[in-house]
C-alpha cells in the first residue's frame, strides 16, 4: 500500500510514517502544507492519503479541501482525515459524495497503533471508518430522537461498530455473539430507520450516518 501523509506537525508526521513503515506499508511522500499535499497526490497517485483537516497556509480546512479535490478528480480516492477535535461539519462534508474509501479519526486514536493501521487499510480498500466520538456526536445531534429511541442498546452498539468500518464478523467477535445475531440486529436497525439493506456494507453505513445527521 502506497501512502501520502499531509500533516504540518513534524513529530506527528514522522511518527505516522514510521508506524506505517514498521507495518510494511510504503510512505511515498509526506507534506507539511496543502500545496505540497495536493502536488504529492496528483503526481504520485497513492493508494490512500492521510490528511490533517487544518494545514498551512491558513490552518482552516485546507487539508479537507485537498481531499475533496482529489476525490472530485478520482471518485472514491481513499482518504483518511485526522482531526484534533470532533467537527461534525467536516464529517458531513466527507460523507456528502456518497462514496466509500473514507475515514475520519481523532488524532488521539493514533496512539492505538494497531487500530490506526487497520483503519488506514480499511479506507484504502474502499471501506468507511468513523471515530467513535464522531459517531456518538452524530447520534446526539440528529433531529430524529424518537426514531433513534426505537433502537435497543445492543442495536446502537452494532450501529456504532458498523460506522467504525467493522465487518459483520468483526462486530460478532467484538460483542461475543454469532454473525447470525449480528445480521438480525442490522436488519432490525434498517427496519426501524426505514432503510433497506442493499448488501453493500459501506453504502449502508453511509446511508445510516447521513440519515442520523439530517436536521
UniProtKB/TrEMBL annotation:
GO-annotated biological processes: phosphorelay signal transduction system; regulation of DNA-templated transcription
SMART domains: HTH_LUXR (SM00421), REC (SM00448)
SUPFAM superfamilies: C-terminal effector domain of the bipartite response regulators (SSF46894), CheY-like (SSF52172)
Keywords on record: DNA-binding, Phosphoprotein, Transcription, Transcription regulation
Residue ranges occupied by any Response regulatory domain in the UniProt entry: 2-122
Domain HTH luxR-type: 144-214
Alphabetized PROSITE patterns for the sequence: HTH_LUXR_2 (PS50043), RESPONSE_REGULATORY (PS50110)
Gene3D superfamilies: 3.40.50.2300
UniProt KW Transcription regulation keyword: yes
Pfam families (UniProt xref): GerE, Response_reg
UniProt KW Signal keyword: no
Sites bearing 4-aspartylphosphate, chain numbering: 52
MF-aspect GO terms: DNA binding
PANTHER family listed in its UniProt record: TRANSCRIPTIONAL REGULATORY PROTEIN NARL-RELATED, TWO-COMPONENT RESPONSE REGULATOR
Name listed for the protein in its UniProt record: DNA-binding response regulator, NarL/FixJ family, contains REC and HTH domains
Organism field: Asanoa ishikariensis
Amino acid at each position: 500500500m502506497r501512502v501520502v501523509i499531509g500533516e504540518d506537525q513534524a513529530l506527528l508526521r514522522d511518527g505516522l510514517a514510521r508506524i506505517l513503515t514498521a507495518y510494511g506499508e510504503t510512505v511515498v511522500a509526506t507534506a507539511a502544507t496543502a500545496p505540497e499535499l495536493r502536488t504529492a497526490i496528483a503526481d504520485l497517485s497513492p493508494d490512500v492519503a492521510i490528511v490533517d483537516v487544518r494545514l498551512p497556509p491558513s490552518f482552516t480546512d485546507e487539508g479537507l479541501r485537498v481531499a475533496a479535490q482529489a476525490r472530485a478528480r478520482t471518485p472514491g480516492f481513499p482518504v483518511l482525515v485526522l482531526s484534533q477535535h470532533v467537527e461534525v461539519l467536516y464529517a458531513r462534508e466527507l460523507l456528502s459524495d456518497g462514496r466509500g474509501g473514507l475515514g475520519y479519526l481523532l488524532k488521539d486514536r493514533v496512539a492505538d497503533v494497531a487500530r490506526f493501521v487497520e483503519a488506514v487499510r480499511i479506507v484504502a480498500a474502499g471501506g468507511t471508518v468513523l471515530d467513535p466520538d464522531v459517531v456518538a456526536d452524530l447520534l446526539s445531534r440528529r433531529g430524529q430522537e424518537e426514531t433513534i429511541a426505537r433502537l435497543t442498546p445492543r442495536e446502537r452498539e452494532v450501529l456504532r461498530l458498523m460506522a467504525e468500518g467493522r465487518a459483520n464478523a468483526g462486530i460478532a467477535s467484538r460483542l461475543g455473539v454469532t454473525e447470525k445475531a449480528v445480521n438480525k440486529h442490522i436488519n432490525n436497525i434498517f427496519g426501524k430507520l426505514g432503510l433497506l439493506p442493499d448488501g453493500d456494507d459501506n453504502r449502508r453505513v453511509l446511508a445510516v450516518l447521513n440519515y442520523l445527521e439530517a436536521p
